[in-house]
Amino acid sequence: MFAYAMLGTTDLERAARFYDALMAELGQERCFADDTVIGWGGQEDYDRPNLCVGLPFDGRPASVGNGTMIALKAPSPDLVRRLHAKALAHGGTDEGAPGLRPQYSPGFYIAYVRDPDGNKLAFACYGAEDAA
């Protein structure tokens, strides 16, 4: 359904450091970069969505959307925890510690952060064991 998700940044180099660290944990490499946008995923693989960060095209400062969030799929609770820790270590802020959220779905293990620009991200694992 999705082709790509784009998040705005006011500092492309800072965003690159933050997202390079997270995408490496997810096994996603940069597929393109220029002076205004960086993308991770598969440039030639149009069946996979990409995640991109960039300077706004209109030249105005990037801003976050209220209620806007990108959820990145993680196959295990351990990866959710690693992504959360890595985000905090690279300038992100905590928006919800890793843990089960059974009120949303059985086995739904998730953590929430904001990137250095304030964009909200989630790291989600479906089907986690209660002991996770």
Structural description of this entry:
The chain is of the alpha/beta class and 132 residues long. The chain is globular. The longest helix has 14 residues. Strand 6 and strand 7 form a beta hairpin. The mean pLDDT is 92. It has a four-stranded mixed β-sheet, with helices on one face. Strands 5-8-7-6 form a four-stranded mixed β-sheet. The chain has two helices and eight strands.
In short:
This protein has 132 residues and is of the alpha/beta class. Helix content is 20%, strand content 33%. It is built from two helices and eight strands.
Note the main attributes of this structure.
20% helix; 2 helices; 4-stranded mixed β-sheet; 132 residues; single chain; alpha/beta; 8 strands
Helix and strand succession?
A: EHEEEEHEEE
Structural class label = alpha/beta
Estimate the mean pLDDT confidence. Answer: 92
Number of strands: 8
What's the main sheet like?
4 strands, mixed
Strand % is 25-35%
How much helical structure, as a percent, in the residues? 10-25%
Give the termini distance in whole angstroms: 30 Å
**Assembly form of the protein:** single chain
Biggest sheet strand order reads 1-4-3-2
Question: Low-confidence segments, ≥5 residues, pLDDT <50?
Answer: none
**Shape verdict:** globular
Task: Note the total helix count.
Answer: 2
Instruction: From the alpha carbons, calculate the radius of gyration and give it in angstroms.
Output: 15 Å
